Automatic annotation (TrEMBL):
<protein>
    <recommendedName>
        <fullName>(4-O-methyl)-D-glucuronate--lignin esterase</fullName>
        <ecNumber>3.1.1.117</ecNumber>
    </recommendedName>
</protein>
<feature type="signal peptide">
    <location>
        <begin position="1"/>
        <end position="19"/>
    </location>
</feature>
<keyword id="KW-0964">Secreted</keyword>
<dbReference type="InterPro" id="IPR029058">
    <property type="entry name" value="AB_hydrolase_fold"/>
</dbReference>
<dbReference type="GO" id="GO:0005975">
    <property type="term" value="P:carbohydrate metabolic process"/>
</dbReference>
<keyword id="KW-0439">Lignin degradation</keyword>
<dbReference type="GO" id="GO:0046274">
    <property type="term" value="P:lignin catabolic process"/>
</dbReference>
<keyword id="KW-0732">Signal</keyword>
<comment type="similarity">
    <text>Belongs to the carbohydrate esterase 15 (CE15) family.</text>
</comment>
<keyword id="KW-0719">Serine esterase</keyword>
<dbReference type="GO" id="GO:0005576">
    <property type="term" value="C:extracellular region"/>
</dbReference>
<dbReference type="GO" id="GO:0030248">
    <property type="term" value="F:cellulose binding"/>
</dbReference>
<feature type="compositionally biased region" description="Low complexity">
    <location>
        <begin position="404"/>
        <end position="441"/>
    </location>
</feature>
<feature type="region of interest" description="Disordered">
    <location>
        <begin position="390"/>
        <end position="441"/>
    </location>
</feature>
<dbReference type="Pfam" id="PF00734">
    <property type="entry name" value="CBM_1"/>
</dbReference>
<dbReference type="InterPro" id="IPR035971">
    <property type="entry name" value="CBD_sf"/>
</dbReference>
<dbReference type="InterPro" id="IPR054579">
    <property type="entry name" value="GCE-like_dom"/>
</dbReference>
């Protein structure tokens, strides 16, 4: 029988030893890319950012290292997630359309989300929900008793340098990437569901998206602990594609062509690592590790020419699974490899059994640790042969509850003898939105006539942006959901 995730987090049995030192402070000023050491293999998630020391136990992971990783990812990649405790969310429901309004600092942004409910869903028979950034195959989930809430993400923030939409109506001027903005739209949609949709159980949730929207679904899981399952599909670089080992498969997607093709996806700070990605103090396995102990299932296509599917499956996933196993929750992360290419609709059936296992406690036969036709590249994470000696005590399984779990905005936990990194309070923290230095904006602009640069999306179901590509590239259809400038 499943217990609530909030209860699960509250009863984690780990304790820090009374004599343990406080968590190390985050370095200030932020180290520049050129000052960081170069490393060809995946960085050690157990070692502190600027120290030679490693954590010693799961307690220290949850209290010190995991919050440090979340801070690290916001400093160098995503930009800082806004402090939700300073926002007011209002919503109205018109049939299956949610109209969502968010106000903060005297500014208001608005967008919509569309519900697709399975037959029989009601206030007395609540169902789980897929929080979809962009279109998904609703019937796959509805037929399995799972609702879909599709976020109008382009009205949250455009897929370009323009500062329109709900997010930028409030936060224009901050160095925050569109992936974080779209993740914020997922979270505010979940707020509206909690307010107005009694047919949905808001504690059984998954964030899902594909390609650049898979990157955003990953950010949604990272920045809000209410997301029970994170489902990144074909997410590539700046998602779960490795910055190192980028050449294993696909067209050779790396930081350079991804960041230069769509610089607005992440903060401007990441540009400092162009042609120098081995100095990044993290790789994408850190993102997965920062989501533990919640669930994650990763969809990748063997024939995907646009992302490094093999690198995600054989380098990033097994490295992250080492951490999950060390925490005692290895069954909560899975790799779903399928035939087919980029954002193939078959990906939804590919991840469905994993979702059913978590949402409904269904017994499944599929092995989501099967990497066939590939195998793990263990030389990419040599630190796995020397794990910290602290071990996890038996951990209760999370289950649905009627108590909402607020967003985790804590970045720098205070010393304590109990776990504080995953909080069930909404006390604002001043570190969630730094104000010590001016926040720059990304000044890169699209080519004339709103034509998209090479590698950017230019079409697909629910796409409302331009279909024009810069001279020298053509908008090529991969499938009904995704076309790309090539």
């Amino acid at each position: 029988m499943l217990l609530s995730l909030s209860l699960f987090l509250a009863v984690l049995p780990f304790k820090l030893a009374a004599a343990q030192s406080p968590c190390p402070p985050f370095p200030s000023p932020l180290p520049s890319a050129s000052s960081l050491p170069s490393q060809s293999t995946l960085p050690d998630p157990f070692q502190y950012f600027t120290l030679k020391t490693r954590i010693s136990s799961p307690a220290e992971w949850y209290t010190c290292r995991q919050p440090e990783i979340k801070r690290l990812l916001q400093e160098y990649q995503y930009g800082f997630y806004p402090d939700h405790s300073l926002e007011t969310v209002k919503a109205t429901r018109n049939g299956n359309t949610l109209n969502i309004s968010i106000t903060a600092g005297g500014k208001t942004g608005q967008f919509t989300a569309t519900l697709s409910l399975p037959s029989g869903a009601s206030a007395s028979k609540k169902v789980p929900v897929m929080l979809a950034i962009g279109g998904v195959t609703n019937s796959v989930y509805n037929n399995a008793g799972i609702a879909v809430a599709t976020i109008d993400y382009l009205n949250v923030a455009p897929d370009g340098t323009g500062k329109t939409g709900a997010f930028w109506s409030i936060y224009n001027g901050r160095d925050i990437g569109a992936l974080t903005a779209w993740a914020w739209g997922v979270h505010r949609t979940l707020d509206a569901i909690e307010l107005l949709v009694p047919e949905i159980d808001p504690t059984r949730t998954a964030s899902i998206g594909c390609s650049r929207l898979g990157k955003a679904a990953l950010a949604a899981g990272l920045f809000d602990s209410r997301i029970l399952i994170t489902v990144p599909m074909s997410s590539g670089i700046q998602g779960l594609g490795p910055y190192r080992y980028w050449q294993l498969s696909g067209q050779g997607e790396n930081l350079e062509n991804s960041k230069q093709g769509a610089p607005w996806w992440t903060s401007s700070v990441l540009s400092g690592f162009l042609n120098n990605s081995e100095r990044l103090p993290y790789d994408s396995h850190f993102i997965a590790a920062a989501i533990a102990p919640r669930y994650m299932v990763i969809d990748e296509g063997q024939s995907d020419p646009y992302v490094n599917a093999k690198g995600t499956a054989t380098v990033v996933y097994p490295a992250a699974r080492v951490l999950y196993k060390w925490l005692g929750v290895e069954e909560r992360i899975g790799m779903a490899i399928r035939t087919g290419g980029h954002c193939d609709p078959s990906g939804h059936a590919n991840v469905l059994p994993f979702l059913q296992k978590v949402f409904f406690n269904t017994t499944i036969s599929r092995d989501y640790n099967n990497l066939s036709p590939w195998s793990a590249v263990t030389t990419a994470y040599p630190w796995a042969s020397n794990l910290p000696t602290g071990t996890a005590t038996s951990i209760p399984s999370p289950t649905p509850s009627t108590t909402p779990i607020p967003s985790d905005t804590t970045l720098s936990p205070t010393p304590s003898d109990t776990i504080t990194s995953i909080s069930t309070t909404t006390t604002p923290t001043t570190s969630s939105t730094p104000t010590t230095t001016p926040i720059s904006t990304n000044t890169t602009i699209l080519p004339p006539a709103n034509c998209h640069p090479k590698w950017a999306q230019c079409g697909g179901v629910s796409w409302t942006g331009s279909t024009c590509c810069v001279s020298g590239s053509t908008c090529m259809k991969s499938n009904e959901w995704f076309s790309q400038c090539l």
